[in-house]
Design a protein that fits this description.
Oligomer: single chain
Order of helices and strands: HHHEEEHHEHEEEHHEHEH
Number of strands: 9
Organism: Dyadobacter jiangsuensis
InterPro entries: THDP-binding, Transketolase_N
Strand content: 5-15%
Strand order of the largest sheet: 3-4-5-9-8
Pfam families: Transketolase_N
Keywords: Thiamine pyrophosphate
Shape: globular
Radius of gyration: 18 Å
Family: Belongs to the transketolase family.
């Protein structure tokens, strides 16, 4: 896709996010809005997916295709929207988000058999370990697929992250691209006040990772360029860490930059104000 086309998809995904969270009056809009460009660029441009006659085909094994794991599972609205818009399941199913008997739980789960979901996530700190297992399996199987994983910056306060960070370069897991969503916010406030991560790039470099920074993580062209660069550095004995600088709540002016929108749903008036800022490009569900 051209950048302009990707931007149109991103606008619709943002509409989906605020409508989904409003519809059940529960969920996490802030981080979802901030990571929209990344997930749209991955699924609509960068990732190699299994397809049959132009339609996405999903299986749990994921052989001979690229895989994505969402470690910060609370931003499920953006993932569900992107999966639906990419054709994994009907877009109309987005209306069931967080409702009884829905496959679209607040945090992704596998027992719902939702296409695109391979692990239950949202218990922070676990996604990098899972991604490493999948990437290692691909190497053992001579599978050329790439494994991607997204984590939050607040999530870097979890100890399991750093066990995985040690494992990856030691075992030369060089078919892995990890992302940290650096929006500087977590549920209780700014990350620098809750638990200062300090220089994450220097930390990962000290652990043996190759580090790339995307300074404009809400600019589609910058994200696409960063993904191209990250892929080009694979296969040289080191995992890749991408520091993705985003804005919490990006795209909706009254949500931007505040931890208060980490996990709060908009009311009717706020929904209308948000939708007025986001073009309907693919049709609302």
């Amino acid at each position: 896709m051209e950048i302009e086309q990707l931007e149109k998809v991103a606008s619709q995904v943002r509409r989906d996010i605020v409508r989904m969270v409003h519809g059940c009056q529960s969920g996490h809009p802030g981080g979802s809005l901030g990571c929209t460009e990344l997930l749209v660029a991955l699924y609509f441009e960068r990732m190699k997916l299994k397809e049959n006659d132009g339609k996405v085909v999903f299986d749990m094994d994921g052989r001979d295709e690229d895989l994505f794991f969402l470690s910060n599972g609370h931003i499920s609205p953006v993932w569900y929207s992107v999966l639906a818009r990419r054709g994994y399941f009907p877009v109309s199913e987005l209306a069931t988000f967080r409702k009884l008997d829905s496959r679209l739980q607040g945090h992704p789960t596998t027992h719902e058999h939702l296409e695109g979901i391979r692990i239950a996530s949202g218990s922070l700190g676990q996604g990098l370990s899972v991604a490493l297992g999948a990437a290692t399996a691909k190497k053992l199987n001579n599978d050329k697929g790439i494994v991607y994983v997204l984590m939050g910056d607040g999530e870097q306060q979890e100890g399991q992250v750093w066990e995985a960070a040690t494992f990856a370069p030691h075992h030369q897991v060089d078919n892995l691209i990890a992302f940290i969503d650096l929006n500087g916010q977590q549920i209780d406030g700014p990350t620098v006040k809750v638990m200062n991560n300090r220089d994450l790039g220097a930390k990962y470099e000290a652990f043996g990772w190759e580090v790339i920074s995307i300074e404009e993580g809400n600019d589609m062209a910058a994200v696409a360029k960063g993904l191209y660069e990250a892929k080009g550095r694979l296969g040289h004995g080191r995992p890749i860490m991408v520091l993705l600088h985003t804005g919490m709540g990006y795209g909706v002016d009254f949500m931007m930059g505040s931890h208060k929108w980490h996990g709060v749903a908009p009311n009717d008036e706020q929904l209308a104000a948000a939708l007025a800022q986001l073009d309907e490009t693919l049709g609302d569900y």
